[in-house]
Structure formats: C-alpha cells, structure tokens
Specification:
AB_hydrolase_fold, Rossmann fold, single chain, Carboxylesterase_BioH, alpha/beta, 10 helices, hydrolase activity
Length: 268
C-alpha cells in the first residue's frame, strides 16, 4: 500500500487507491492487512474510486496504544476526508462490524454494505464469543500469538483437526504475523451482538450473508444459519436495510459475485 493518511491521534494509515468514479472505502476483517479485498477492489475500479486500506496495526499502517474502537472510527474518518468528505462503505466479516459502528457514529456514509458480519445470535455462539474475548486479550498481551490464533480459529468454528492442519501448513507464520491484532478486532465487535446504536444509522444498508457455516471448511462448528441470522438481525435493527444471501459463496466473497451486487447497490 503506497498512500497514507494521518488519523486524529497521529497514526499513519496506509491505503491503495484505484479507479475513477464515486468513492468506495473497503474495510477488511480479522487477520487481513488489505490483501483480502484486493480482488474486489480491482473489480470495482472500473466504476468507482476505491480506497482499500490496512487497518491500524496491520501491514504498513501504524498503531498508537492504547487501542480503542473510537480510534479505528477516526481512521475511517481520515479516509473519508481523503475521499472528498463522503463515500460508500463496504465491510467484510468483523470489518463489517466496524463499518456499521462507524456509520452509527455519524460518519458521512452514502451507502453501506456488509458481508458475513460475525454477530452471535444464538446462546451457544455468544458464550463461545465471551470465552474467546476473555482469553484472546491476555494471549496477545503475553506474546502468545500461536495461542491467540488457535483461540480465534476455535471461535470461528474450526474443528481441532482443522486447526492442527492449519498449524502444519505454510500459511501459519503469515497468520501469526498479524495475530497481534486479534484482541483489538474482538474489542471492535463488542459483545458480538448487534449494538443498539445501529438503529441510529440513517444511510441505506445492504446486509449480505454467504451461507457459509456448518459443514464449511474451517467453520464446521458454527450453526448452519450463523451468518444469515446475523444479517437478519442487522436488517431488523437498521432503519433502511436490504437483505441478500449469496448461495455457494465462501466467507470471502468472489469478486465477480459480490462486485455486481455492490455496483447495483452503490449506483441505484
């Protein structure tokens, strides 16, 4: 990422800009340094000016302790200013949770789309989130990043054999390299239920789920309707909301499926 904005607390936030047209800012989820949204950014760039950034503490973006969700919202505020004052916003996974909170806080969002936000709507999943949030912070603070990553994968529904397979894979070191952000990412999601202040959102919202849950690779421990229930809850709470489900998609949506839906929503 080759461009930078300075957040309110002086933290440098890196981003890539591509394309021409209405402004769209992309927000990544846990363990993402911006790479996850790169294919989507490339797809949207023929119709939009796309800002794909690395959240604080990730990639080339700096960080300034102590962490607070408000600082991440200020990071987005700086990107909105860079984009000319207003923009559409897209958030994937826990990045969708951050995007929703930013819109509720009054950022100048024209239209907001979120994908597979991991709010926990059933009691068992919510208890799993409570245990995860209680343990991941100490693991990160003590430098036990392998433990933090294992906790995250357990929270995300991975079975023990799936976690063991990932630990043995060549991708494990790259995931542990960003595992220090897992505690802040969990804090960003609050108690992993949709916060009441989402009712304050005034812009149109598109809540999308992939259908990825029970039986999906890496998420076999989640309820079958995990992401659908979360999207339904978002749509019920936000005043101007639409709902879509993309069948046969993974937790990272294919750009040729997600892109057309976003283009239609952002350019009604």
């Amino acid at each position: 990422m080759t461009n930078y904005v300075t957040s309110n607390d002086g933290t440098s936030i890196s981003y890539d800009r591509s394309g021409e047209g209405p402004q769209v800012i992309l927000v990544g989820g846990a363990l993402d340094e911006g790479a996850e949204n790169e294919p989507l950014a490339a797809w949207l760039a023929d119709s939009f000016t796309v800002y794909n950034y690395a959240r604080r503490g990730r990639g080339k973006s700096g960080t300034t302790p102590p962490y607070a969700v408000e600082r991440e919202i200020e990071d987005l505020e700086a990107l909105f200013a860079e984009a000319g004052g207003r923009a559409h916003l897209f958030g994937a996974s826990s990045g969708g949770g951050l995007a929703l909170r930013a819109a509720a806080a009054g950022l100048p969002v024209d239209r907001l789309a979120v994908y597979d936000v991991p709010f926990c709507m059933d009691d068992a999943s919510h208890e799993r989130a409570r245990v995860y949030a209680a343990k991941v912070g100490p693991a990160v603070a003590e430098g036990r990043l392998d433990d933090a990553l294992e906790l995250f994968l357990w929270f995300a529904g991975s079975a023990p054999e799936e976690i063991a397979g990932m630990k043995a894979s060549p991708y494990w070191p790259s995931m542990t390299a960003v595992a220090h952000t897992l505690a802040s990412d969990a804090a960003c999601m609050g108690d992993h239920r949709p916060p009441a202040e989402l009712a304050k959102i005034t812009c149109p919202v598109l809540a999308v789920d992939s259908g990825a849950s029970a039986g999906s690779e890496g998420m076999s421990g989640l309820p079958k309707d995990f992401f659908a229930s979360a999207a339904n809850a978002i749509a019920a709470l936000v005043p101007h909301a639409e709902r879509q489900t993309f069948a046969d998609q993974g937790h990272v949506g294919a750009p040729d499926v997600l892109g057309p839906a976003l283009k239609k929503f952002f350019q009604p």
